[in-house]
Amino acid sequence: MKDEKDEDSDLDPQTQADRLEERLIDFAVRIIKLSNRLPKTQAGKHISGQILRCGTSPAPNYGEARALKVEQTSYTNLELFLRSLKHLFGTD
């Protein structure tokens, strides 16, 4: 029997990245629910704040990193295209 990790290894990188992002969002939701169940004492509020900060940041950080990678790829492709044009027209 294959577990979820084995099934993900059969997928293309884009689908794997999408699934990871979904899992990070689900994790953040679970962290929020957990922090809401902590006691409203000074210590509970402190721990809740810490858990919220570190448990909810991976999802948006990962999403931003993926977006930057797409931008870098697009920029690199544009650079290659421009170099090709320069070479084609003999202006390099």
Low-confidence stretches: none
Strand content: under 5%
Biggest β-sheet, characterized?
Answer: none
Shape: elongated
The number of helical elements comes to 4
For the termini, the CA-CA separation is 57 Å
Can you describe what's shown?
The chain has helices spanning 4-9, 13-37, 42-56, 58-88. It is mainly α. The chain has one domain (11-88). α2 (13-37) runs antiparallel to α3 and α2 runs antiparallel to α4. The longest helix has 31 residues, at 58-88. The mean pLDDT is 85.
Summarize the structure.
84% of the residues lie in helices and 0% in strands. It contains four helices and no strands.
Features:
92 residues; mainly alpha; 4 helices; 0% strand
How is the topology of this model organized?
Layout: H1 4-9, H2 13-37, H3 42-56, H4 58-88
